[in-house]
Amino acid sequence: MRPRSVVSEPAPALAVAGVTLSFGGVRALHDVSFEVQPGSITSVIGPNGAGKTSLFNCISGFYRPAAGSIRLFGERIDRWSPPRRARHGLARTFQNIALFRGMTVLDNIKLGRHAHLETSLVDALVYYGRARREEVALRAEIEHRIIDFLEIDHIRKAPVGALAYGLQKRVELARALAMRPKILLLDEPVAGMNREETEDMARFILDVKADWGVTILMVDHDMGLVMDLSDHVLVLNFGEVIARGRPAEVQDDPTVVAAYLGSGDVESLRRRFAGGSDRGAEAA
Hints:
The protein is an alpha/beta fold. It has helices spanning 52-60, 82-87, 105-111, 121-126, 130-149, 165-177, 195-212, 223-229, 247-251, 254-261, 266-273, 278-283; strands at residues 14-23, 26-36, 41-45, 67-72, 75-76, 90-92, 183-187, 215-219, 232-237, 240-245. The protein has a 6-stranded mixed sheet, sandwiched between helices. Strands 2-1-4-5 form a 4-stranded antiparallel sheet, covered by helices on one side. α3 packs parallel to α6 (165-177). It is globular and about 55 Å long. It starts with 13 loop residues before the first strand and ends with a helix. 35% of the residues are buried.
């Protein structure tokens, strides 16, 4: 009798286990555990102060958790420096735009590849041989793939500080893609955007997942966007995980409703999850 073959599931792209973080007597995260599957979009939601950005800072290396572990495709990274995490495929954008406003769009995007450059200091100073070849290849990839993909060819020579807010957010995404990420952390990717800009960014996020094969972990307060794009949703409140699951499961969870509204109007939260507004309902 032939032995039955065992099909093993792929390792999670990201595995966070028991992460705890405190600032003095303030507990920002407590025993946070979850997994992000390869090729998925997982969103982290929660009220203001729930610990979402603190979680992102632990994953990307800006904060070092007091306890717990973080693994990237099975390899433990929670003691690695941020540049080392970047070289192994972790990239992120920021809630507050972190671009060099006096530099051009193209130069800002090129900075995203810095962690992967192999040119030595001497090669870079004389700009000959390997340094020049690497620069030419980098520029070609950025211009022909990233800039065209995000539809920003018309602004590539413009200084970032002269751009509208929505375009700056797009440039920040371009810089993250220049890092050749395996996992992309998006911190409030549509915050402050109008409806048209939000729809464009949502399209780009879905294409990054589908066409680039990048796994995405996202934080955003736009519940319509979260529920439309996400494969899985994780809910934080006061630094603890209070719910997880598919979008439809999470939005009907009474614990989630209570965390957002207390004793408020449940229907207003459901409209928010659906991308509607209380103002529109009142006008009707």
